[in-house]
Write a structure and sequence with these properties.
Blueprint: H1 11-42, H2 49-60, H3 75-104, H4 107-123, E1 128-131, H5 137-146, E2 151-155, H6 158-168, E3 174-176, H7 182-187, E4 195-198, H8 203-216, E5 221-226, H9 232-238, E6 242-245, H10 246-259, H11 261-272, E7 278-284, E8 294-295, H12 296-299, E9 308-314, E10 319-322, E11 329-330, E12 334-341, H13 342-352
Parallel strand pairs: 1-2, 1-4, 2-3, 4-5, 5-6
Antiparallel strand pairs: 7-12, 8-11, 9-10, 9-12
Amino acid sequence: MSKLIPSASTQDDARSAQNRIGFAALSVVLVLVFGSVGYYILGGGEWPMLDCVYMTVITLTTVGYGETIPISGHPEAMVFTLILLIMGMGVMLYFVSSLTAFIIDGQLQNYIRRKRMLKTIARLKDHHIVCGLHGPGEFVVEELLTSKAPMVLIEQKPLYIERLQQKLGFEVPHIIGDATDDSILLEAGIKRCVGTIVTLGNDRDNLFCTITARTLNPTMRIITQGDDPRSEEKYKRAGADRVIFTTVISGQRMASEVLRPNVVTFLDLMIRDKSHPLRIEEIPIGASSRIKDHTLREADLRRDTDALVIAVYNTATGRHTYNPPPNFTVRDKHVLLVLGTLEEIEHLRRHIS
């Protein structure tokens, strides 16, 4: 991750600066064409076009290398030169001031950083997209980054992104825009991602974003935040794979704090420990896996890592086997649910692949 520059300008600021420079450059070109064609017409076509262009350039830049065309005895050309000089100086000053402001204000650096970020996003594949920092969105981003999962954030309010980056201390791959807009989702790589998490703050926006995302990528997994549990079926019909109702989760959490406080404390420590975070991860078993058609005893997974297999999911039957015994045989299309640190789980993933 690149280091965060606290005073980074927003994407809209950079775009506005680019538009100003573009307009100023176009104005310079138009004045150059106006002057060159004007001299050519005043000379009755006898003055070479290259000399007319050269005369226009030295007039606009006030270099004063001398006349390349005889305008001293030509009153019309002298008046035209005065008009060109006055008009050209204003245009040149506007262009130089716009370019200087673009560089000095840091907008050039931010523009380069933005282009570099967009190139990085364009190269992403099998990543996750987080739509919105409202509510749990910030914590979703933190968890994905902690798990070292490639991700892109979409958020309309630059201030929210800046606050998050200040908190994390580094720059998060992001796009400033409306997550319900097809073009923004496509820019974030919606067709190449494996999952999208929608936390836009209200059911209307979440539902519309879910429909749009599902239309653009029919195979990815979509997790959506919901406000009203009665709207779950609408989300499912819109294309959401799972709907998380934060009020329901909060209520269950509060009850668990009373009924089983030690369990909740353990889970909190497991998630929030920044030095050695514990996670429950999925490791799919493919046809070429080393432990396919072997028992857990034969696989001897604990020999190389302390990661613990707490369950096995059978994708064919949709059933889980909790705390599988040593004589449990691992088959193709099984998914191991493993508890351990990120390093241990990654080591185990490489070992059995």
